[in-house]
Amino acid sequence: MNQNSIKAKAEARVLFVDMNSYFARCEQQANYWLRNRPVGVCVYTGKYGCVISLSTEAKERGLKAGMRLNDAMQICPDLVPVESNPARYREYHTKIINVMREYSNDVVPKSIDEAIINLSNYDHVDPIKIAQSIKSDILTKVGDWLTCSVGIAPNAFLAKLASVRGKKKGGLLVITPQNIDEILSELKLGDLPGIGANMSYRLERAGVKTPLEMRYCSPQRLKAIFKSIDGIYWHYRLNFVETNIVAHEYKGMQAMRQISAEKRQHISYIEQLFMTLCLTLEKRMVHHKFYCKSVGFTARYVDGTRWDDAFTITVPVQDAISLMRMIRSRMQKFESATGSGPILNTEITQLRVAVTNFVNNGNMLYSLFDDMDRKETALKTMHDIKDKFGSDKLIRAVEMTDGKVIKDVIGFGSVKDLTDLDYK
Question: Distance between CA atoms of 41 and 39, rounded to whole angstroms?
Answer without folding.
Answer: 7
